[in-house]
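re: ur question from yesterday

yeah so i grabbed the chain u mentioned. its 116 aa long if i counted rite. heres the sequnce exactly as i have it in my notes:
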Amino acid sequence: VQLVESGGGLVQPGGSLRLSCAASGFPFILTSMTWVRQAPGKGLEWVSSISSGGGNTDYADSVKGRFTISRDNAKRTLYLQMNSLKPEDTAVYYCAKGPKLQYSGRGQGTQVTVSS
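ran it thru and got these C-alpha cells back, copy pasting raw so excuse formatting
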C-alpha cells in the first residue's frame, strides 16, 4: 500500500487549497477512503470519508460545508477541496485506506498552515 499526499501549503484565513492523494498497491476502486489530520500537539482527527464509488460522503462537523471529498477512480486519486479555511484547520493532513472507523495505512502527510 502506498499513499502519497500533496497540495498543502501556507494560506490566509478564508483561502482555499485542494489536497490530492495518489494511491497504489491495493484495489483503489473497491476501497473506501478517508482523510484525517493532526494538529500540533494533538491526536489524529477524522476529517472525511468517501465510499468506493464516490456516492456516499461523510464529514466531521468542524469541516462540514467547507470541505469536499472526492475521488477519481480512473486516476486512483483522492481529493480534499478545502474552502473558507480557518487557523484551526492548521494540521498535517493524511489520506488513509478504508472507511471512517476502520482506516489504516496513512501516507507521509501534507502540511496545511492557515495564517495571516
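noticed a couple things. The CA atoms of residues 25 and 56 lie 23 Å apart. also The longest strand covers residues 17-24.
anyway ttyl
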